[in-house]
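Methods — Computational structure assignment.
A single polypeptide chain was analysed. Its primary sequence is given first, followed by the predicted tertiary structure written as C-alpha cells.
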Amino acid sequence: MRMRNLWVHVKVSGAERQDWQAQAVTAGLTVADLIRQRLAVATVDRAPRRPPTRRADPALLAGIARVGNNLNQLAKWANTHKGAGEAVQVLVALAKIEHILLSYRPGVSGAKLPTD
C-alpha cells in the first residue's frame, strides 16, 4: 500500500457528509476510500473534452467553392496570357479578391479593398 501523507480538504454540507458516510458503510469502505474509488473511476471513464466545433452554413461553403473555382479558371487564363494587357487587369482584380476573401478569416474584421 502506498504511503498517504498529504491532505485534500473539501467542504461539504452536513447532508452530503451523511450521504457519503452512508454510502461508505454500505460499500464497506471508509469515506476517504469511497471518495478515492469514485474519483479514480470518474478519471478513467471521462473522455477528454474536445472544443466544440463550429458548423458552417452549407450554402455559404458551396458559394465559396464556386467562387474559388471561377478564380482558379481566371488565374489559369491570366497566367497563360501574361503579356496581354487584359491579363494584367485580371491579375490586379484577382489580388483584390484574394485580399477580400482573406479578410473573412476568423479573427480578421472588416473586408477592405486594397488601394491602387
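Note: The chain has a mean pLDDT of 78.
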